[in-house]
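Dear H.,

Thanks for agreeing to be a second pair of eyes. The structure we're designing against is below in token form, covering all 143 positions.
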């Protein structure tokens, strides 16, 4: 009987990791749906979120059972993700959407603040180029 309990504990913990991975993925899906980003940035973010989920799962598996991967561990992980999307995700949808909206607005505000000096510099450079162009046009007309 102790052998069975020693196998059920990692199974249940990995099931909880699957629930957590499903929650992270749902939050990411809602965040991307609410944002308006370019396709190539989306590809980079997709890659980064999958790396984050893999690191999260791998780290938690190291803590749970020293990183041993067995069939029942993979089954528990996917069962957790499946159960999350079938039962918990519909109930958390409003909260997740609100959290994703806050996340998107926060990141947009940071990007706007960081980009302000660049936009100011771009306007100044374009004004300088326009002034340079205007100052050279009379010389072109004289020739």
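And this is the sequence the design step returned. I haven't edited it by hand at all.
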């Amino acid at each position: 009987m102790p052998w069975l309990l020693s196998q059920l504990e990692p199974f249940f913990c990995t099931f909880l990791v699957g629930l957590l991975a499903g929650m992270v993925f749902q939050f990411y899906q809602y965040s991307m749906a609410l944002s308006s980003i370019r396709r190539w940035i989306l590809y980079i973010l997709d890659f980064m979120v999958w790396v984050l989920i893999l690191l999260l799962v791998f780290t938690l598996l190291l803590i749970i059972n020293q990183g041993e991967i067995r069939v029942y561990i993979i089954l528990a992980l996917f069962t957790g993700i499946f159960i999350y999307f079938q039962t918990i995700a519909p109930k958390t949808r409003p909260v997740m959407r609100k959290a994703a909206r806050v996340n998107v607005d926060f990141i947009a505000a940071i990007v706007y603040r960081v980009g302000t000096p660049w936009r100011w510099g771009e306007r100044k450079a374009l004004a300088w180029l326009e002034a340079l162009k205007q100052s050279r046009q009379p010389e072109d007309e004289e020739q």
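Two observations from my side: Residues 2-142 form one domain. The chain has one domain: 2-142.

Warmly,
E.
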